[in-house]
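seq:
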Amino acid sequence: NMQAIIEAAADGAETQGTTHTLGTAAVPPEVVAPYEIQVASLKSILAQAEVAGALAASALAAAYQGFGQQSLLIDQLEAKSEVLNSKLAASQTEKAEGTVALHGAQAEAAAHA
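struct:
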């Protein structure tokens, strides 16, 4: 009954010396050993997955921090852009007023000519 042997190995069946017992039947170590190796291998894979998960979480945190810094930089650039747009609008208004004054002065000069 291989399923019972697998379950016994997985559940940490009683050990007497090097022979495992399953109920009243003795299970030779060479039968249990491959399953113990599989369990050890699975534990190793799980440990590696936990390390990989921790690395991924660290990378995600670093990326999020970088994103926060980029977001702050973008906000600063947008603020500077608004200031420059405001200055540009003011200078265009001054230019328009100057053009109107110039045309007025030209018209007045022409009237006196």
